[in-house]
Design goal:
The structure is a single chain. It is built from 13 helices and 11 strands. The protein is an alpha/beta fold and 314 residues long. The protein has a single domain, classed as Rossmann fold. Strand 5 and strand 6 form a beta hairpin. The longest helix is centred in the middle third of the chain and has 20 residues. The chain starts with 10 loop residues before the first strand and ends in a 5-residue tail after the last helix. InterPro entries: DHS-like_NAD/FAD-binding_dom, NAD-dep_sirtuin_deacylases, Sirtuin, Sirtuin_cat_small_dom_sf, Sirtuin_class_II, Ssirtuin_cat_dom. Keywords: Metal-binding, Mitochondrion, NAD, Transferase, Zinc. Its EC number is 2.3.1.-.
């Protein structure tokens, strides 16, 4: 078995036949929090029953309960655990070296990231959607866990890690198919990660990165990039306008698992507040939108919904 001289605690070396069958149990990356009270459940029931067309905005805090860490959670987020920072859009575009490092790390992290499954919050939203109580779900996450849970009306504000696009033409490919391409271009590499980061990549030794092969677009030889909004990039204008219209036509806004630190999501809180919509926030810790909220529950989303629906979710 060839290990390429790599020694890293977060990595396992497997032969190519076992690589695709490697799965790990989900870990929780939720920060410390107080237990849910009966008052929390009652207040959430009142909010849900008082509004018939609720727009839901979800953030990384709901995916932590599936085993995907977030960036900013106190003590457990990426920024608290590591000095590493996500790649900036301009760096990805301008630097072939940084693009290669990004794709090498993403390649190793993909089997773990793509095997993660939805949790009780995702299934609760599917239940509410099926009961016609939601106008839409707008998610800041790129993990497609809402779709895996069966939710239909989902707006991926920051895109999806499950698509790869060309920055120069209209070429697009599913991320699983792109993984197969990377497998073929890197046949001697059989490295699998036990860890995962919020954007689906992992830390790797430099010698691994240097030998990694990344393809260009098969149609125009342009740069291939995940169809996600990187830091330093902007959410497409038409997507922002679409969500703004959802805010206008909804009765209320429910924020789940988001600190609202980035403006891409916070802008919709400001809009809802200006329109005097009811705003509820469920998030562990303070959020940027707390001063606008009519209801703030400083608890774990999954515990709120598991108590709301008890054994009714599948």
């Amino acid at each position: 078995m060839q290990s390429h001289g790599l020694h890293c605690k977060s990595l396992l070396f497997l032969n190519s036949s076992s690589r695709n069958n490697f799965f790990l149990s989900s870990l929780s990356f939720a920060p410390k929090h107080k237990p849910v009270t009966s008052e929390d459940i009652t207040l959430m029931k009142i909010f849900l029953s008082s509004n018939s067309k609720i727009l839901v905005l979800t953030g990384a805090g709901i995916s932590t309960e599936s085993g995907i860490p977030d960036y900013r959670s106190e003590g457990v987020g990426l920024y608290a655990q590591s000095t590493s920072r996500p790649i900036q859009f301009q760096d990805f575009v301008k630097s072939p070296r940084l693009r290669k490092r990004y794709w090498a790390r993403n390649y190793v992290g993909w089997p773990r990231f793509s095997s993660i499954v939805p949790n009780v919050t995702h299934f609760a939203l599917r239940r509410l959607e099926s009961e016609m109580r939601l106008s839409s779900i707008v998610t800041q996450n790129v993990d497609e866990l809402h779709r895996k849970a069966g939710c239909k009306n989902v707006v991926e504000l920051h895109g999806s890690a499950y698509r790869v696009i060309c920055l120069h033409c209209r070429y697009e490919v599913h991320r699983h198919l792109f993984q197969e391409t990377l497998n073929k271009l890197n046949p001697s590499i059989s490295i699998v990660s036990q860890s995962v980061r919020p954007d689906g990549d992992v830390d790797l030794p430099q010698d691994f990165v240097e030998q990694f092969v990344v393809p260009n677009c098969p149609d125009c030889s342009g740069i291939l990039k995940p169809d996600i909004v990187f830091f330093g990039d902007n959410v497409p204008r038409e997507r922002v306008d679409f969500v703004k219209n959802l805010v206008n036509t909804s009765d209320a806004l429910l924020v789940l698992g988001s600190s609202l630190f980035v403006f891409s999501g916070y802008r919709f809180i400001l809009q809802a507040a200006e329109l005097e919509k009811q705003i509820a926030i469920v998030n562990i810790g303070e959020t940027r939108g707390d001063k606008h909220a009519h209801l703030k529950i400083d608890k774990k989303c999954g515990e709120i919904f598991s108590n709301l629906f008890e054994n009714e979710l599948t």
